[in-house]
Amino acid sequence: MQHELIGLSVRIVGSADRKQVGMRGKVVDETKNMLVMEKDDGKTLRMAKVGRTFRFSLGKEKCDVEGAKIAFDPVERVKKCAGMRAKVVRGNAGAKKQRSWKES
Question: What is the pLDDT of residue 86?
């Protein structure tokens, strides 16, 4: 994903640990392997990128991203993900359009 993640709203939409699915917050920090998100109650969570699928809100659009595809240092991620393109995916009938990032 060729975009700064800090400041974006994020929700976990896929994880082997079902308790994590649905967790949401705002990205406040990012490392090579972790996203740090602040929940609405002010608590911060450190989540490994690998093994999870994140849904980022980019304005009115939403973008689903596999954590393994963004498991790079933030500066390197922007360079390495330059070849990725957005793919529109549809959820339930009548759901808003969402984007999913795939390698071209």
Answer: 47
- The CA distance from 6 to 99, in Å, is 18
- pLDDT, tens digit (0-9, with 9 covering 90-100), for 2-32: 568 999 999 999 999 999 999 999 999 999 9
Region of 54 (left: φ > 0; alpha: ψ -120 to 50; beta: rest) is beta
Residue 34 is part of which domain span?
A: 9-103
CB 3 within 8 A of CB 12: no
Hey, what's the torsion of the CAs at 22, 23, 26, 30, to 10 degrees?
A: -110
CATH number at residue 54: 2.30.30.210
> How many angstroms separate the Cα of 94 from the Cα of each of 2, 48, 90, 97, 98?
28, 32, 9, 9, 12
Q: How many domains does the chain have?
A: 1
Task: Report which DSSP code applies to 83.
Answer: G
| pTM of this prediction exceeds 0.85 | no
